[in-house]
Prior knowledge:
- By secondary structure, this protein is of the alpha+beta class.
- The protein contains four helices and three strands.
Amino acid sequence: xxxxxxxxxxxxxxxxxxxxxxxxxxxxxxxxxxxxxxxxxxxxxxxxxxxxxxxxxxxxxxxxxxxxxxxxxxxxxxxxxxxxxxxxxxxxxxxxxxx
Length: 99
């Protein structure tokens, strides 16, 4: 069964939080880091993965993404702080194929 993910990306100063959903977290984070697609994350330099949740069903992930997006910034910060209080890039050390 294919896993799905809801994830938070931010910029180096942690001033912007982007929430997304994907079925391939490694590939999607790589796309954000390389600014493959022009959009919100490339415009605001959101290239740091600070939080993610794993799901066994894409529909559950989409429901959770909508729930998280509807929350205020403080709730998002609290969620990140509960798992990653230093807001470190959780993808550090992941192997990315930039070719």
